[in-house]
Amino acid sequence: MVDRFSREITYLRISVTELCNLRCRYCMPACGVKKKRHADMMSEEEILSAVRAAASLGVRKVRFTGGEPLVKRNIVSICRRAAAVDGIDEVCLTTNATLLPDLALPLREAGVRRVNLSLDTLDADKYAYITRRGRLADFYRGLEAALSAGFEKVKLNTVLIGGFNDDEIVPLAQLTQRYPVDVRFIELMPMYDGGDFGPEAFLPRDRVLEQLPQLERVPADGGVAQLYRLPGAHGCVGLISPVSDHFCADCNRIRLTADGKLKPCLHAPDEISIKGCSEAEMVEKFRLAIERKPPWHGELSAEHRSHAGRNMNEIGG
Ligand code: SAM
Ligand code: SF4
């Protein structure tokens, strides 16, 4: 379906849970999130109805995210069933990777084609700090499992954080020379409670280009990242700049939260509930949500925080 600004909406991002086994400082509070009533969250059947409803309007790609999608007990079944929906060409997943050692192969066999793994530092102490409870060794075990499982693409997502990982941009980018992965640097988005970080933590994507003058521009792959390559690298370095140079004019996505709210835009407060709807009703709600997509996400900066009204783990980054 095409929205009011001639953008074709083909990509649905579904958060399957707000819960997570980590507590990244820019994403969720130290105490975690208040567990909502099970009955208020989307069931597996409702998630599948939503995928079918979206596919009937032209959605071709689904990404499962969270919170941490791998803490969801039935994630493999959800992925398998979503991959089998008529019209869905691609099922992908964004994860912190720590639970992949047991799940990478079942997910690949269930039809997940691509995975994005989050990694903000190569230093074990800093990893423990930023995630408040994670172990870098668990991430690496997850990465190895993902590489062995044969996903079509493995990408690493790094949030750029001033004073935290600006001194690691070069070694993080060099992971593309060591592994067959893309590394994507993402600008820190000022979500509504701000996490532990103030304005000084924002690093524009140009900081990456300054530190890596040897990067060569390569054609984009249809995603939101500007792509570059280091000499001899297996994968690309991607720059994703929602703050310094937004890509709203090319937005092809719609989001569904774990509690059943369609979000026309990541940073807008507008939400349309589909919890408890029949599949036919969901089709109409998706139509409405696509019609209500705003032209852009509005000003985003330390002074103009996201209007999403939720932290990232409650939306699905
Ligand atoms: N738990 C999974 C993970 O960490 O990959 C999936 C959910 S997480 C919310 C998805 C992505 O959003 C992660 O790559 C995370 O680093 C990113 N993210 C979370 N909060 C963010 C923020 N304030 N600005 C930019 N990216 C953020
Ligand atoms: Fe959990 Fe992912 Fe948020 Fe980190 S970024 S707290 S791993 S949901």
Structure in words:
The chain is an alpha/beta fold. 26% of the residues lie in helices and 18% in strands. Helix 1 packs across helix 9 (279-291). The longest helix is centred in the middle third of the chain and has 14 residues, at 136-149. The model has no long low-confidence stretch (mean pLDDT 94). It binds S-adenosylmethionine and iron/sulfur cluster. Residues 20, 26-27, 65-66, 68, 94-96, 118, 157, 159, 186, 188-189, 191, 312-313, 317 line the site of S-adenosylmethionine.
Nutshell version of this structure?
With 317 residues, this protein is of the alpha/beta class. The protein has helices at residues 44-56, 75-83, 100-109, 124-131, 136-149, 169-173, 175-178, 206-211, 279-291, and strands spanning 11-15, 61-65, 90-95, 112-118, 153-160, 182-187, 216-218, 226-229, 237-240, 253-256, 261-263, 272-273.
